[in-house]
């Protein structure tokens, strides 16, 4: 159905508030910006801001629902004959090659990471988001394979895959902070990603056997 005028205006207002907020956060840091300043920049009242965003942190995490669902979407949209792990390998490498934001491998990801790292409240919200994402992914996998409620496999699969993608993303950001170019970083991240997914594919049973 076509979006009604009222709904479109509400969506545009929400987007404008979020965009103005992010611009201020990027310039001055999350903890140095007030909701009142965001309201003035967006030309709305403070009450209007809180009508759209429950907390100041929600202004920063305005794409929470989309981000939380992204890994589950990879599972739902995988190709016939493709495993969950293979789908994530393909999706991660595609994001790497295209510079897409969904794994934090895009230009500007280091600035986003610094904003989060400099704010204890954002760090806490990011941990909440990661937990919610893992729970949703595990549930999606479990539903897909019709797993028994006591079967830990979907949760183990989700935890390992998300751990790998986050470690790779954080590696890229740390190296960007150190002054390396994205071109240098992403070439090495691709190599390490292939090795990491190979490790998951083959299992870790023979890893680090003491000689």
UniProtKB/TrEMBL annotation:
Q: What are the residue boundaries of the HTH tetR-type domain, all occurrences included? A: 11-71
Q: What is this protein called?
A: AcrR family transcriptional regulator
Q: Which domain of life is it from?
A: Bacteria
Q: Give the DNA-binding residue ranges.
A: 34-53
Alphabetical list of Pfam families matching this protein: TetR_N
In its UniProt record, a GO molecular function of this protein is: DNA-binding transcription factor activity
The answer, when asked if Transcription is one of the entry's keywords, is yes
- Listed InterPro entries: Homeodomain-like_sf, HTH-type_TetR-like_transc_reg, HTH_TetR
Which UniProt keywords are given for this protein, alphabetically ordered? Answer: DNA-binding, Transcription, Transcription regulation
């Amino acid at each position: 159905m076509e979006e009604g005028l009222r709904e479109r205006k509400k969506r545009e207002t929400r987007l404008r508030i979020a965009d103005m907020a992010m611009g201020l956060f990027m310039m001055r840091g999350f903890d140095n910006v007030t909701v009142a300043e965001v309201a003035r920049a967006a030309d709305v009242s403070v009450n209007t801001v809180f009508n759209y965003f429950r907390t100041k942190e929600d202004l920063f995490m305005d794409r929470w629902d989309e981000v939380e669902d992204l890994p589950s979407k990879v599972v739902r949209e995988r190709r016939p004959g493709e495993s969950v792990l293979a789908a994530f390998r393909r999706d991660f490498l595609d994001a790497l090659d295209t510079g897409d934001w969904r794994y934090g491998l895009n230009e500007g990801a280091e600035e986003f990471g610094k904003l989060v790292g400099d704010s204890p409240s954002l760090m806490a919200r990011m941990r909440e988001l990661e937990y919610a994402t893992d729970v949703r992914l595990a549930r999606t996998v479990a539903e897909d394979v019709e797993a028994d409620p006591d079967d830990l496999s979907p949760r183990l699969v989700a935890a390992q895959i998300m751990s790998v993608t986050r470690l790779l993303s954080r590696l890229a950001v740390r190296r960007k902070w150190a002054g390396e170019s994205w071109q240098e970083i992403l070439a090495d991240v691709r190599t390490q990603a292939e090795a990491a997914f190979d490790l998951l594919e083959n299992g870790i049973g023979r890893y680090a056997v003491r000689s």
